[in-house]
Amino acid sequence: MKLGFIGTGNMASAIMGGIIKKQIISADEMIGADLFAPGREKVKSQFKIHVTDSNKEVVEKAEVIVLSVKPQFYEDVIHEIRDDIRDNQIVITIAPGKTLAWLAEQFGKNVKIVRTMPNTPAMVGEGMTAACPNEYMTEEETAYVCTLLESFGRVEIVPERLMDTVVSVSGSSPAYVFMMIEAMADAAVSGGMPRPKAYQFAAQAVLGSAKMVLETGKHPGELKDMVCSPAGTTIEAVRVLEELGFRSAVFEAMKVCEEMSKGM
Ligand SMILES: NC(=O)C1=CN([C@@H]2O[C@H](COP(=O)(O)OP(=O)(O)OC[C@H]3O[C@@H](n4cnc5c(N)ncnc54)[C@H](OP(=O)(O)O)[C@@H]3O)[C@@H](O)[C@H]2O)C=CC1
Ligand SMILES: O=C(O)[C@@H]1CCC=N1
User: How many folded domains does the chain comprise?
Assistant: First the structure.
């Protein structure tokens, strides 16, 4: 087995889906463990990967192991597997707040670890993942892990001090964007548009806007100004968003998210 998952929930499924779609690793070379039988069965039927109820079996069989349980279960899972981890294996973590120093302490031995923060758009190959390798990872091993992570989106190696900021700007942010799409669609429905069409219009507008930021290299403010025709419709919408504290709401929500990550 090339890749193993301990925990087969939402984020693990998004990663599995992205990797299988890009055919970097076949489903037959992946194994996932989950205590929750319906969770295991879901990924088995969806992706045809091997599944087990034993975390130790994943460690026994996989070269690279993704710890994809909630942060509060990290300590127990690491203590369960630490004696079985071999020198040549690589552990990928995806939990907020779990620093490389904390992870080293829990393993209590020299383990190759890459601390990452992915996001669920991995499911459609548009993930954004930040990665921090520890001192036991060679350049080749880090490059291999980056190839895996790139199979489901963009990857950046970042200094570890930025990881809590990454949680707020990309790990958690799909939730805020989905809320915005939902709100936009509700307003479109109120204007008379059938709901399925409203989601399509709102989502495509968000997708296209994001692509413009990434592909033109222009400042988002300049792109916004290009939409605001003089005495037009958009500038009135912008006025109301400013009045209702749109920017401030996003800013404050992200600061709370970052602080929460630090405390985990
Ligand atoms: N969801 C997201 O968008 C993102 C999540 N993450 C991180 O990914 C990790 C997983 O989150 P997410 O996928 O959302 O959570 P989920 O609850 O969807 O998935 C976690 C899975 O692990 C199972 N589990 C719990 N304890 C164990 C154990 N001891 N051994 C094996 N399996 C276990 C859970 O079972 P049960 O339900 O029975 O407890 C559940 O099926 C977290 O650390 C999270 O912070 C990172 C970036 C984005
Ligand atoms: O909500 C959470 O805690 C996880 C981490 C980033 C996204 N989801």
Answer: 2
Q: Judge if 150 and 199 occupy the same domain.
A: no
Residue identified by tokens 């071999």 is 86
Specify the 3-state DSSP secondary structure of 200. Answer: helix
Give ligand 2 pocket residues (Cβ under 6 A).
96, 167, 171-172
Distance CA 25, CA 6 (A): 17
CA distance 205 to 200: 8
Mapped onto helix, strand or coil, the DSSP state of residue 155 is: strand
Q: Looking at residue 103, which CATH number applies to its domain?
A: 3.40.50.720
ipTM of this complex > 0.95?
yes
Q: 54 C-alpha vs ligand 1 centroid, how far in Å?
A: 15
Ligand 2, from 11, 15, 67, 170: best to mutate by most atoms within 8 Å of Cβ?
11
Tell me: is residue 7 an annotated ligand-binding position: yes
Instruction: Quote the CA–CA distance of 114 and 157 in Å, as a whole number.
Output: 10
pLDDT digits 0-9 by tens, 172-191: 999 999 999 999 999 999 99
